[in-house]
Amino acid sequence: MTARQAAPATRSAQPAGTPRVDSEVGPLRTVLLHRPGAELKRLTPRNNDQLLFDGIPWVDRAQEEHDAFAGTLRSRGVEVLLLADLLAEALADRRARAAGVWSAVDERRLGLDLADTLRSHLTGLDAAALAHVLTAGMTFEELPAAEGASLVRRMHHPHDFAIDPLPNLLFTRDSSLWVGDRVAVASLSMPARRRETSLTDLIYAYHPRFARTDRAYGAHSAPVEGGDVLLLAPGVLAIGVGERTTPAGAESFARSAFTDGLAHTVLAVPIAQERATMHLDTVCTMVDRDALVMYPAMRGELSAYPILPDGDGGVLVDGPVPFLEAAAEAMGIERLRVIDTGLDPVTAEREQWDDGNNTLAIAPGVVLAYERNVETNARLEDAGVEVLRISGSELGSGRGGPRCMSCPIERAPLA
Ligand SMILES: NC(=O)NCCC[C@H](N)C(=O)O
C-alpha cells in the first residue's frame, strides 16, 4: 500500500453529533471553549509574564467579549461546549475526582504533610468546588486551617500559589486537538500550562459524552501543542515546530497519526522560536478549502519537511521544500492560495501580534476574527471571505485569537 492509499476512510456515513474533525474549514458543528473566570483574577504584574499573559486583563470585560464570541458561534448554528461545565460534569465520577486531586497537588512544592492535608481537603469537595480549585488554583492563605502549621505553610507568602491557576485554559486550542474521530491530549511545553492537560485528559476520560472516544498520540510525551497543528485537508497535517512543538513532537505525532490511519502526509514547518510566532496558527490559518491568510513576512519564507509513513511502522523524512508547494501537492490541489493582504510591514507586524492571522473558520470562506485587525480583515473581505468580527481588547492580552480560543470537536465533511 502506498502512503497516499493510507488516507483516512471517507465519512459519508458519519451522523451529525459524532465528534470528528478532518479539516480546518468544514462547517463547524461543535466547539469547545473556556469562558475565562476566576483564574484570570490571579494575574498580577508580578506573575503575568510567568503565566504567559502580556497584561492584566479586565476580567468582567474579558467575559463579555468571550460571551459575544460564543454568541456569534451559536448564531451560526455552532454548538458551544464550555470547558468548566464539562469538567464539573466529569468530576461527578469519583475516579475523576481522585485523578483531579492527584494531578493538582504537588508534593515537591508542598512537602508530604501539607500535600496529604490538601489532598484530603480536596477529596471532600463537591464536583463544582473541586472544578473551581482545579482551574483557579489555590493560594497558601486559602488552604484549610490546620493545627501545628508546617514549615512550608509558615515560610510561604500567603499569596503564593499552593496550586497554580490556569489562566491559559482560555486557549482551548492548545491542550487537546481532534484529528479524524480521535482526540489527542497535547503535551504542553511551558510549565505554566502543563497542568491544563490533566483537565482535558479527565474530561475525555470521564465525561459521558466522550465515553467512546479513542485517543490519538496516546502515551506520547514529546511536546506537541494544538496551535501548531493545522488540518490542511483530510489526511494532511501541517505541524509548526518552534517555541512549543519540538522536532521530536512533530515526528512522533506523525508516526502515531500514520499508525492510527489519521493521516497520509505530515508537513513539519519550522517557525521562529519567538513569542510573536509561538504557534503555527499565529502565522497562518486556513480561511477556505484552498486558501490561507498568512503574515506577509512569512510568505515565501515557510518551508516544510514532508513526513510520510515508510510502510513498516516508521517514517520517511524529506526536505526542506517550500511549504506552499508541498502542501498543495499533499492536498492534491494545484495551488494553495495565500490571501494577499499586501500590508506595509509595520501594520502587518502590529496586526500579526494582535492575532490578525489567527482566524477561526466556521465554513469554507467564513471566519471569525478580532475586529481590531482592521486592515487584515478588509483584505480578507476584498478576497471574498466573510469576516465575523469579535472584540478582543481584553481577551487578546493572553496573546491568542479566535482559533487559539477554540477546539473544534465536530466539523461537517467538506463536500
Ligand atoms: N494557539 C495559540 O497561539 N494559542 C495562544 C496561547 C497563548 C498563551 N498565553 C500561551 O502563551 O501559551
Automatic annotation (TrEMBL):
It catalyses: L-arginine + H2O = L-citrulline + NH4(+). GO terms for biological process: L-arginine deiminase pathway. Its EC number is 3.5.3.6. GO terms for cellular component: cytoplasm. Keywords: Arginine metabolism, Cytoplasm, Hydrolase. It holds the Pfam family ADI. It is found in: Cytoplasm. It comes from the Bacteria. InterPro entries: Arg_deiminase (IPR003876). Residues 1-25 are annotated as: Disordered. GO terms for molecular function: arginine deiminase activity. Pathway: Amino-acid degradation; L-arginine degradation via ADI pathway; carbamoyl phosphate from L-arginine: step 1/2. Its main location: cytoplasm. The active site is at residue 404. It is an enzyme of class 3 (hydrolase). Belongs to the arginine deiminase family. NCBIfam families: PRK01388.1. HAMAP family: Arg_deiminase (MF_00242). This is Arginine deiminase. The gene is arcA.
